[in-house]
# Entry
Amino acid sequence: MTDDQRTDAPRTDAPRPCPGPAAAPRGAASPRKLYVKSFGCQMNVYDAERMIDTLAPEGFISVEVAEDADLVVLNTCHIREKAAEKVYSELGRLRVLKEAAAAEGRKLMVAVAGCVAQAEGADMVRRAPVVDLVVGPQSYHRLPELVARAADRPGLVETALTPEDKFDRLAPPSPAAIAGRGTAAFVTIQEGCSRFCTFCVVPGTRGGEVSRPVAAVLADVTRLANAGVREITVLGQNVNAYRGEGPDGAPWKLPRLLARLAEVPGIARLRYATSHPRAMSDELIAAHRDLPQLMPYLHLPVQSGSDRILAAMNRRHGRDLYFERIDRVRAARPDIAISSDFIVGFPGETDAEFADTMDLVRRVGFASAYSFKYSPRPGTPAAAMEAQVPDAVKSERLTALQALLEAQQRAFNAASVGRTVEVLFEKPGRLPGQIVGKSPHLQAVHVQAGPEMLGRIVPVRLVAVGSHTLFGELEDAAARPIAV
Ligand code: SAH
Ligand code: SF4
Ligand code: F3S
# Structure
């Protein structure tokens, strides 16, 4: 098993080609072609869309493959070594493409954005001279200017961590751009993190925690809803600690923001990610009971089941707090699906401490989870700790943990079979005549139905379970496609 294997559909590290098509270009005679490839978390997915929207008025249209592009942006992730190293294999491939383009008299510009850009800055250009521009996450609103400057002066690096709200300065997406992206969308409501877990690079790559004002979030969500989006996942590394300035000037917390977003016409479903156990407030737990739009799914990373390891990670809570929060969430919303993140082989982790993690998993019962081998990251306190765990031990523990989590996920999905659930259909399936959507519990559901169902929320009877997916039938016979 590898570091990056997990027990759910990939969330981090999976390459995500940018969603297209983007807005029609304004002004420029012939459009320039832009390809954005994102790695990492959902925030990078959101950022990729905003980059496309910000470059659209400059005459850029997005394309599906790097081979067609005039500008390639790699939107990178630094969270684990494997994620960061992927960038360099991509850059090797792009070097070949760039040389081929030059031989044809064409110019291919290569930009690196995201958390590796922030962490490595000028070192990237030294290590990979194919890179024309390095741009950190706080500077995306300056992309048009930076791209123009890098065209004349390749090797430009912009990684300032400024407190200004880049989101206010990024271009809003056009209705056409949003419509091309489907019916479920991410909206970043908080950037950065100030928690400083000892293993984590995020406070360094994204800066301190900043919450966007309520009005800005509301404007984003309203625009998305007007373009047909039905489901919003609000994002932050510590999203349940959201404290954005409200229209009244007072700070609003997440439950109040969610209640307000639920009033936006067209928004039928709300989710949030990622939460910290300590910030799981009574009000937020009550929202899972009282706000029908808030989906019964909670991603609450715990990382470890050992109190000593949790303390060494600077998570600032023990296993009992986790159990207590889960009990309260389940009391408020008994059918809630619980998901989590785990790290195995944190420095000094003993067999007994790993057994505590296995015990926690057995006691909680997860619907899905992501699990990783601890990866020492430059500049983090844990990387300098003694007693680093050998890779073979990490692999063994990851295999055992993932087997348990997989079994729990299969059991959770199997228990859904026979039930009727509301599915929001998002995209065509792989097989002809099939479409795919999400259940309230964030399970992928495949159904035989026509494309006219995309964007609709309809009752589906779940009839079978695959390895990570469910198969269903439309409950309403009238909505079923007519057999020919
Ligand atoms: N803000 C979120 C986590 C963001 S990073 C939270 O606190 O829950 C996503 C996940 O990557 C983390 O939950 C953790 O499980 C994993 N991760 C982060 N740093 C890591 C490291 N150095 N090695 C292995 N996994 C790591
Ligand atoms: Fe990283 Fe911890 Fe912040 Fe999550 S809460 S982003 S793990 S420092
Ligand atoms: Fe990766 Fe940066 Fe997200 S390190 S997980 S892309 S915040």
User: Anything to note?
Assistant: The mean pLDDT is 91. Residues 420-477 form a domain with the OB fold (Dihydrolipoamide Acetyltransferase, E2P) fold (CATH 2.40.50.140).
